[in-house]
Each structure stands twice: as structure tokens, then as C-alpha cells.
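thread: overnight batch results

M.L. [08:02]
morning all. the overnight job finished for the chain we discussed friday. pasting input first so we're all looking at the same thing
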Amino acid sequence: MHIMRTHEIVIDGLAGVWKETAIPTNSGRRVEEDSRHINDAGLAIIKVFEGFSPLAYYDPVGVPTIGYGHTRTVKKSDVTHGRKITMEDGEGLLFLDLASAEAAVMKYIEVPLTPNQFSALVSFTFNVGGGALKRSTLRRKLNGGDYSSVPAELNRWVYAKKKRLRGLVRRRKAEGVLFKK
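M.L. [08:03]
and the structure it wrote out:
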């Protein structure tokens, strides 16, 4: 039997559905609902390192961004025309983006994870994207059972346009610490 709750949300023209489900993992153990969604510690990492901007801006690699690192629906014209959102809209966009990052971690990581491990990986995936997680050595090593390699693998993802960014170094360290808790 699966437990499922569905939440629908529409923010700034972007509609999404978030589903909470308890399902069996590949190991036959059940994943508890709280481990299928980012926990407070993981959410804090995202909020601290993304920060909230009510105004559209270009991130360090030139991607139009708004709110808590939301990029999916932001255009260059939003930056040039001064698009602005409320904190409530920013939280809603964050909620939608988290659902995507959570789904990617659930899809690509095949080993059991604690809530902290899951949340650290969701923060990482929120930042680099599901495709990067899918292609990563981190994924390959973790799915091979090498949990201890994850903090070092996270630390490899600290560059933007070939430049080492201090904020990414600090973020990866925080994600690594959370993963090990």
C-alpha cells in the first residue's frame, strides 16, 4: 500500500503538482515520507546560499534568476524590465523547484539514504540540476555503495565558468557536513 497526498500550486503562471508518497526502495526497505522531502537543515542550506531576491538578476554564470535561485521561468527581459515578485511567490517557486530536485534524487540515487543524506543531495541538485546529478561521479560512487566519497565529490562542484567561487565552496562544505550527520 502506498500513502499519497497531492498538493497543487500555481505561481507566476507556472503550475506544478507535488506528491508525497511512501514507497519501497530498491533494498526493500520503505522510505519514510519525511525522507522523501528536504528537511529543515537542507532547506536552510538552500535559503542561506541562494538568498532571496525579489528582483530578477543574473547569477554568477549569467543565468536570469529570481527569488531563491529560481531560473526555469525567468527570461533576460525580466532582468532588463525589473521583474519583481513577492516573498510569498518566491516561496512558491522554491517549493516547485524543490519538487524537481527531490524527484531527481529519488530517480538517480538507488541506495538507501537517511533524511540528512537525502536533503544534502537535494540541495546539491537544486543548485546544479538533475542532469548534472545523473552524469556525476558522485552518483556513480554513491550508487556503488561508497557513501564516504560523497563529501569529497561535492567539493569538486565549486566552479562556475572555470572560476572557483567561495560561495560554492562554503555551500558544498555545508552539504557535506549535513550528508555525514
